[in-house]
Amino acid sequence: ADEKITLLVNFHTQPGAAEEAWVENQLGGLVKYNYQLIPAMAIVVSTDQIGAVVEHPNVSVVEEDGVAYVDDINNTWGVKEIGGGLAHNLGQFGAGVTVGLIDTGLDYTHPEVAHVYLGGYDFVNDDADPMDDHFHGTHVTGTIAALRDNTGVVGVAPDIQMWVAKGFNAAGSGDYSDLIACVEFVSLQGCDVVNNSWGGGGSYTLRMAFEASQAAGVIHICASGNNFSLGGVSAPARYDSTYAVGAMESLF
User: Is the CB of residue 33 less than 8 Å from the CB of residue 6?
Assistant: First the structure.
């Protein structure tokens, strides 16, 4: 059987019905995503069709789909360390701010974070239920917005509201093609700030998605990866269109 490959295909102009028909009818492939945020598609074709994809006159850049991974997390002593209490003392709790989460999903039934959940989408399983089957996304959301209820931790901004884009599976890995769809989703929901506690190798198409999202007014906060001696800041934190955040050492 022909080996299948998922390609991220960038076009000179926004691909539409003609390009979708070309993929499905002429190449015998499948359109996984036709992105609206950027002029690109994620497609699945047999490897012997790669040449035909590259030679299409409207195609600019073609790359293979890749994988990113959620970054390790620890407890939220950092909320205090970054001066979160100072903002809280001034009555700043994030009211009116819409946050996007691109992660493993969210346990939106958890009593500490249920209050922030506006809705979301699961791009791993292609359904409208971004329930967290890992734990990472729920933990991150606790850091961002855990309730002020005098129990457990309190989040940096407990009065925000959140859209959830699940792009990572139960093992904590996610395909670039799904993560680009996540960036598009949070952008279309009008999120003010988006949390990206994950990283991987570079991808041209992913970078284009973050640039388009930034141009639409979205602030993307990304984990630097804490690998300074192992190749420096990871993507997407290293992109010009995002803000990289790294770890501080606990001094006590």
Answer: no
Q: The pTM is what?
A: 0.92
CA distance 73 to 228: 17
- The gap between the terminal CA atoms of the chain, to the nearest Å, is 59
User: b vs e for 115-145, b when ≥16 Cβ sit within 10 Å of the residue's Cβ?
Assistant: bbbeebbbbbeeeeebbbbbebbbbbbbbbb
Instruction: Provide the token pair at 58.
Output: 């409207």
251 within 8 A of 225, measured Cβ to Cβ: no
**DSSP secondary structure of the chain:** -PPEEEEEEEESS---HHHHHIIIIIS--EEEEE-SSSSEEEEEEEGGGHHHHHH-TTEEEEEE--EEEEPP---THHHHHTTHHHHHHTT-S-TT-EEEEEES---TT-TTTGGGEEEEEETTTTBS----SSSHHHHHHHHHH---SSSS---S-TT-EEEEEE-S-TTSEEEHHHHHHHHHHHHHTT-SEEEE-EEES--HHHHHHHHHHHHTT-EEEEE--S-GGGTSSPBTTTSTTSEEE-------
Give the tens place of pLDDT for each residue, 134-165. 999 999 998 888 777 766 667 888 899 999 99
Proportion of the chain above pLDDT 70, given as a percent: 90
Report the alpha-carbon distance of residue 44 to residue 228 in Å, rounded.
35
Query: Distance (Å, rounded) from C-alpha 195 to C-alpha 199?
Result: 12
Q: Which amino acid does the sequence have at 110?
A: H
1, amino acid identity:
A
Decide if 204 contacts 244 (C-beta within 8 A). no
Beta pairing, strands 193-196 & 219-223: parallel
